[in-house]
# Entry
Amino acid sequence: MAAHANKFVSDFEKAKQQYSDLYNQLHDMLIAKESELWQKNFEKFCSIPENRKLIDQAIESTKQQLNEFNTLDFSKYSYLPSMYQDNQSVHNSLQFLLTGQAMTWQECAQLLSQREFQERQLKEAQAQRQNQAQIINKKHLLINNKLLRTNKLKFIQ
# Structure
């Protein structure tokens, strides 16, 4: 009986492995086919003159932005405090530099700090407004409940 059970377990494990292998093969085939179809559609998309013009404009714009980016002085990047060295902060700093809002990384850090402070103040003000609205709603409910009780008492009498 034990040998029969062991054979069953062994056969079951083989079947699981075969299923897993077939699944992986199918998955790989689907990815390859999807990639092939995407490439064909992309080539078709690029062959349309209007799209080609847009693609060329995007390439030119990217080249110009890259040239502007390459003119930036990153040697003093370390002036940005570590808390502002994440991608979003660096992006915002580059925007400050490109738009002339800041001339140095230190000025960028100051602007980021100011923006952070303003966002905190805005969140606090919004939370305060929400709390006030909840208090007002609760007071209205209390007043309405009191009026209902008063009206019920008058009706009963």
Remarks:
- The longest helix spans residues 105-156.
- The helical segments are 2-47, 49-70, 87-99, 105-156.
- The radius of gyration is 33 Å.
- The CA atoms of residues 95 and 101 lie 8 Å apart.
